[in-house]
Every structure is written in C-alpha cells, then in structure tokens.
Design a protein that fits this description.
Blueprint: H1 2-16, E1 23-25, E2 34-36, H2 48-60, H3 65-77, E3 82-85, H4 89-95, H5 104-126, H6 137-162, H7 180-187, H8 194-211, H9 224-237, H10 243-254, E4 278-282, E5 306-309, H11 311-319, H12 323-329, E6 330-333, E7 349-352, E8 366-370, H13 371-384, H14 388-401, H15 412-426, H16 433-439, H17 443-448, H18 473-478
Antiparallel strand pairs: 1-2, 3-5, 4-8, 6-7
Helix pairs in contact: 2-5, 2-6, 5-6, 6-8, 8-9, 9-10, 10-13, 13-14, 13-15, 14-15
Amino acid sequence: MKKIFLISVVIVTVLSFQSCKKFLDLKPESQGVAVENASSDSVLYKTADDVEAALAGAYSDFKNEYYQLDYFVNGDAQSDDAYAGGDNPANFQIDEFKLDALNTNVSRDWAYLYSSIGKTNLVINHVNSCPDSALTPARKKEIISEASFIRAFMYFQLVQLWGDVPLQLQEITSISASNLAAIYLILFPPRATMAKVYAQIITDLEAALAHAPVTAVNKGYVTKGAVNSMLAYVYATQEPHDWNKVSQYCDGVISGGYSLMPKYDDLWNNQNKNCAESIFEINYSGGASDGNWGVTIFRGLDWKKFNLPANDLVFAFDGQNDTVRKKASIIFLDVTGKWSDPNYPQTHYPFINKYRNFASGSDQNYIFLRLADIILLKAEALNELGDLQGAAALVNQIRTRVKLPNTTANTQDVMRQAIALERRLELSFEAHRWFDLKRTGTAIEVMNNAVGPTGEKIGYHLTQSKLVWPIPQAEMDKNSKLVQNPGY
C-alpha cells in the first residue's frame, strides 16, 4: 500500500506541474532524480549551449556547502588533525563520534551529493541525443568524460562516508501505467554494496580517462591527471587494495607534466593559483557572485571558527621538527577577550593557515588533488609491493622540500608508519586525514590514542560501527528499501 501511495504522489505531482515546469525534482529530493513530463519533447538538450550549461551546473556543485565547508569538516574535524571548533552541535557530534540519523550535516551532505549525481546523470544520458552540429562528436565524448568524473567523485564521497549506498545512474523520462514499477525502483532504490559502488566508480573513471583532455584552461576542469589520481585513490581504498593498480595510476600522474613547487609555502600564499603541482583545484574569482565564503568559517577573529587545529597534530609537527609545514599550515594568534577554548590559551590560539584570503567575497582557491599527495600514495604502493628503497626515495623527495632529513625507515612496517606520518604533515587540513585512517585500517587505534593539550588521551572511544555514518532519518522515512547502518 505504501508503494502504491508513493507512486500516486509522484504522478499527481508531475501532472500538477506539467504546464509550468518541464523538469522537476521529486521526493526524495536528496537523490536528485529529474523527471521529464510524458508530453514533453524527447530531446533534452537542443543546442550545444544547453549541454555546456548543464555540465557547468554539475561543475558548480564543487562550490556548494558540501565542498566549501563540510568536505573539510568530514576529512579533518573527524580525524586527529582538528577539533570541531565553533559552536555547532552537529559538528560536535561528528568530531566526537556521537552522530545520529537526525544530524543536520548528515542529511544535507547526502542531499548535496545525490543532487550532484542527478545533474551528471542527465548530462551522461542525454548529451549524445543533442542535434546541434556545433557540438562535435569529440566534444560530446569529452563532456561525458567530465560528467563521469564528477559522478565518480560524488560517489567516492558517499561510499566512504556511508558504506553501502543507493546507485542511481538514470532519471525518469516518462510516466505511464506501464512503467510504474520501474519508476519506483529509480526513485526509491535499495542500498548497493560497497563493491558495486566501487565498481561503478571505476567504470566511470575509466570512461573519463579515455576522453579526458591532458590540460584545461585551469585546474578546475577534469583532465587525465585528475582521473588518474582518483583511480589511484579508489584502488588504494576499496577492499582488497590493488597496489599494482595504485602504482600504475600514480605513474600516470607523475609522468603527466606536473612538478612540485620549489617551496611548500608557494602552494598557500595565493600567488600561484593553478600551479604546476596542482592537479584538481576549485577556482574562485571572488565577489558576491563567485566568492568562497567557506574559508571564512576556518579563519578570522569575528567569531569562533570551525576546524580548530588539534594538539595531537601540533605535537606531530614538533616531534619531527617540521617547522616549514607547521608554519604554513597553522598560525597562532592572540584572541584575548574574544573567546576561550579548553585546548589552548587565548594568547596562543591556532587557526588553519593554508587558506589565507578569508575576507568577504574571497577568491581563495581550494586544492583537492596535488602531486605531493600522489607521490606519497605511490610510495605507499611501492612499500606494500616490497620495494622499500623505491618508497624511501619518494618519501625523501617530499621531505627534502621542507628541509627535513631522509627517512630512516628500514622495514616495511616502519616505512608504512613513516608514510602515514608524512601524509599527515604534508596534507594537513586538505580533508584527507580521516579517510587515510579509514583506508589503512588504523582509524580506531589512532583516534582512541589521540591526545589533548597535556598529552592525556582525549577519550574518543571510536568503535567499528562509527566508522560509517547513519543513513539520514528523512531518507529512511521516504524509502522503505533503505536499511540503517548497524549501531544507529
């Protein structure tokens, strides 16, 4: 009866808007399912401009709230690199592993990611039917490549946060009595296994690699380097890890014309946007129409900021005498008379320093993928494949830039730990740490041993069930096929 009722609601909703809106998002809105009226033209995109605008809409989602803010909360505040900071109870739950299915961040992140997937589905499934000769066959292939990368990127977020998630690869294009069962499955799908989700991500990325350009007007567009980077990440994350594939795709990046910036701080001084080291970078022009408001959440003295650098990370920098990366990553300021925090004195209060243009309407870019990250991922692969010497050479390449001596790691296990530490210090506040801990199977041990300002354990009490998030309760209420993650 519930199924019949939901389908009835779908039909009534479509018909009620038939005269005023060609495409509409139906509940569950978070899944971004676009519906075309049964009476509409079968061609979705009539001109090349229509297609390019649709693709631009998918790219623009890298500037929504998920990627301006929550991406970093999820990757850093959920790890031992940062505390939640600020005053948001939803973020405190994430930081302390006390999430529930009603958490507002959990529900909005699900919604953002599936909405983006809905946009890419439309592009992938309809670009080839565009009749405009101005849209060449080669450009159509490129567009599908770009949209496939974006869809894979979104699903990679989903599968890492929630584990098994629904796979939605198509949209409803017509409604009739004969296709109600199919419509229901599209609107309200069950969760797919992680293995199936990863298989789809790989399928999308392989499709993207075939026709992605080598270069673009800036690093905010999909290129072969970005696709190779994501393929390396996926094979290093899914179980079982395929280190030969990781090494292969890392090589595709390393040989792709990128190079490390001479100085580590060159990456963060806002004078080298889309630099030679950057692989995939979200570009902002600034101002009211294209300003990065997210960076103001992490830096500034007008109110207490999110993602407060953790004592455990500060101790890690100091333990390695890593003054170059510590200075570039963290700035300590006097906030006397503004606010207090149990983790730091007001006179020596830390902020993230990698994102330095925090004025209103900021043109601060975010680098999501860069060469140093991939070099260290390659080192990890070589170490797991038994090439200790090759791994050491790559680690030393990264350490040399920040004036640190060569690694002394001389066994596979010690090298594994050395690479993990190197990634932590090199990539702090770039939203990688929590997912590195998860994919290496060290999250529970590391987080339960994280220490506070006096060296005492914080007491996170992380358990296996808390390594993934709860399915948002609103989605559970809409879709009876969804099953909640254990422990929630």
